[in-house]
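Recall that a protein's primary structure is simply its ordered list of amino acids. Everything else, from secondary elements to tertiary packing, is in principle encoded there. The following example makes that idea concrete.
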Amino acid sequence: MLTDIEIAQQANPQPIKEVAASLGIAEEHLEYYGKYKAKLSESLIKETAAYPDGKLILVTAINPTPAGEGKTTTSVGLGDALSRIGKKTAVALREPSLGPVFGIKGGAAGGGYAQVIPMEDINLHFTGDMHAITSANNLLCAMLDNHIQQGNSLQIDVRKILIKRCLDMNDRELRNIVAGLGGRVNGVPREDGFIITVASEVMAILCLASDIDDLKMRLGNILVAYTFDGKPVYAKDLKANGAMAALLKDAIKPNLVQTLEGTPAFMHGGPFANIAHGCNSVRATKLALKLADYCVTEAGFGSDLGAEKFFDIKCRKAGLKPSAVVVVATVRALKYNGGVPKTELSTENLGALQKGIVNLGVHISNMHKFGVPVVVAVNRFGTDSEAELTYIENYCKELGADFALSEVFAKGGEGGIALAEKVINATEKPSDFHPIYPDNMPLKDKIRTVAQNIYGADDVSFTAQALKALTEIEKLDTANLPVCIAKTQYSLSDNPALLGKPQNFNITVRDVRLSNGAGFVVVYTGDIMTMPGLPKVPAAEKIDVDSNGKITGLF
């Protein structure tokens, strides 16, 4: 059996100008990064602004488990299946972060015969967007520290600095550091730390900005610190936003690549979904909608995180209206939610399936709360029994969701035709999309609404630190901002050990931070790491390159 990278390396990709031509994109709008990837010009975005929108399809999933669900694989395979049945389709996905690539997860360009290519390039550096974001973030940090070193005319309190440096790599040693040691010439000593690039507010801003002017304004509005007398200090006060925008002038342009079957794929931006809003850029999604009749996009982790933020932040801010939602699950993952150890998931176990399927039920119900038709896609494994699959199908029908088996990992687009047909039917149904809470609801009530209506919590409790932070944030005219709740992806609750459908629990908010430039309030629950660490056996140990430049071990 071929590995993902071996399948990708055997592909015969089309020149990117031919992929672009299939969407009606003239070569003059392409900025080439080799033969098979390109950035798309500002003039194309302006030229297509008046085009009608296609149908927007969101792919999300149940809570992730060690058994695997295959959300990106399903997104890619669904796009190829729609193309196979004659629909003008594009997929819009996030860019991978180097941290997970070298850590536990590995690559993030799909899997099997449902991948985006060139897979190695996408997973390793791609068009340099991540590095540009890293540089812009760290320029702001450097200018902040330099301002303090050069006399601190703004009277910034070093104990109240809110931003951290970032790095697109998992490195736990950098979570908490002391900077500025070595005497006066080397800066002012203070506590500092690093976050991973995909958790940076600059990443969130890039993904929500409408154009370069909006990007510059948002960068200027980043809240970086407070003064000794409690006044806010923004990036524009440091005169940093112009240079930051200059570093991002190319990164803001969407990237175009292709699937194994030649379906156009827009890959742009990549904020984490447990600590950020978890979806690709507004610009890429909107452009895909203008150029294709169907745009398949995804949101990170389970629907309680990625989809909720896609709806309540991205769609709200960008005026997007999804036509259908696909919720991805596997028999194996549902049995894991029912208490079956990972080593025993290949054996038929209807009892465990019946116990664990409640997790899927919550995700279906939650998506219906946003007023969008739902299709459940079950990634089929050879060990799935007919009885198990029939049980899931009947369960979905009882909850008012369509059901389809997906075999895109093994068969590519051909294995997703049944799913594609169900999705097309779903997009023709009435959709009454609406966010879960209104703009003018108080921040505490927005948090409580998500916790109770999406997670199933009884209530929300706030630590003293969280209450203090909320009070400070509410002084800054932030009442109409949405909330971006940072929570474990492994459970509907804030406790990763509570699988299935947790009952009788509260959500504890331990801190709140304002992402003023991005335009949302980040709410921290549980133990959320903004700088992951490498596992005992990192994926990096298996990655290599030979004398001919051929990469191996990247899965």
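The chain has 20 helices and 25 strands. The first strand starts at residue 30 and ends at 32.
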